[in-house]
Amino acid sequence: MESELGGIHLKLEGLRKSFGTQAVLRGIDLEVLPGEFVAIVGRSGCGKSTMLRLIAGLEAPTTGNVLLDGKRSHRIEPKVRMMFQDARLLPWQRVQANVELGLVGSQADVRQTASQALCSVGLENRAREWPAVLSGGQRQRVALARALVGQPRLLLLDEPLGALDALTRIEMQQLLERLWQEKQFTTLLITHDVEEAVVLADRVVLIENGEVTLNLRISLPRPRVRGDMALAQMVEKILHRVMGKQERENLKAIAH
Ligand SMILES: Nc1ncnc2c1ncn2[C@@H]1O[C@H](COP(=O)(O)OP(=O)(O)OP(=O)(O)O)[C@@H](O)[C@H]1O
C-alpha cells in the first residue's frame, strides 16, 4: 500500500467530530484510491470543510481514524496540500516568493522548482508581480502552483473555484484536470457546483448531516463535455438527492 510516487491511499474510518454538544461528523467511512479524484458535495454546514481539516491534520477527530497509505497520521503531512476559496497569498511578497515559500534547498533549486510550478499553471510571465495586481483567477493559479510545488500526493481543495466567474472557472477546471492527470495525486474537491463535481470527479460523495449518504461512481469518458446528455442526467440524479422532497415539490409547484 505504501508508495512514494503517485497518489496517497486515503481511508476514513468511523470519523466523528463534535464541537461542544454539536455532532458535526457522525461516523464517516470513506476510501479513496491512489490517484482517484473524489468530489464532496452537500449542503452548507453539513461538515465538508471539517472533514477536509481532519484529513489535513489541522484538527483531531473526536473518534475514528484518518489513514494515509494505511497509517494513522498525527501531524500535518508535507505530502498533503490544501487550497481554499481565497488564494491566501502573502501580499508583501511577489508571486515567485509566494510559490517559493517553505521550499528547502539551494537558492537556485528553489527558484527553478517554483518557476516550473508557475509555468505549469501558465503564469511564468507574472513571477515578478505583486499579488494585488493579479485577477482572482490568476491568484488561484498562484495558489495552485504553491500547492503543487511540494509535489503533493494528496490535494485537498476546499471550494477553490467558488469565487471565480463562469469562464475562468471552466479554464481552472481544465487546468486542474490536466495537472491531476499528469501528476496523479489523489484529489478531494469540495464544491457546491454539482456539474463541476460530475465534470471532474471519478466519484461524487454526498454528505448529509455529517454522514455519507451517496457514493456515486461517474464512469463517463474524459474529457467530459458540459451539455452532454449523459452528464446532464448524472447532474440531475445528484441534485435530486441533494434536494429534499419538500423542495422538489415547491419547485414543481413553481413550474406549473
Ligand atoms: N472550530 C469550530 N468550532 C465550532 N463549530 C465549528 C467549528 N468548525 C465548524 N463548526 C461548525 O460545524 C458545522 C459544519 O461546518 P463546516 O464548515 O464543516 O461545513 P461545510 O459543509 O463545509 O459548510 P459550507 O459549505 O458552508 O462551507 C457548522 O455548524 C459550523 O458552525
From TrEMBL:
Official protein name in the record: Aliphatic sulfonates import ATP-binding protein SsuB 1
Main location: membrane
UniProt KW Nucleus keyword: no
GN (gene name): ssuB1
GO cellular component: plasma membrane
Locations listed in the record: Cell inner membrane
SMART domains given in the database record: AAA (SM00382)
One GO molecular-function entry: ATP binding
Every ABC transporter domain range: 10-234
Keywords of the record: ATP-binding, Cell membrane, Membrane, Nucleotide-binding, Translocase, Transport
Family note: Belongs to the ABC transporter superfamily. Nitrate/nitrite/cyanate uptake transporter (NitT) (TC 3.A.1.16) family.
Membrane topology: Peripheral membrane protein
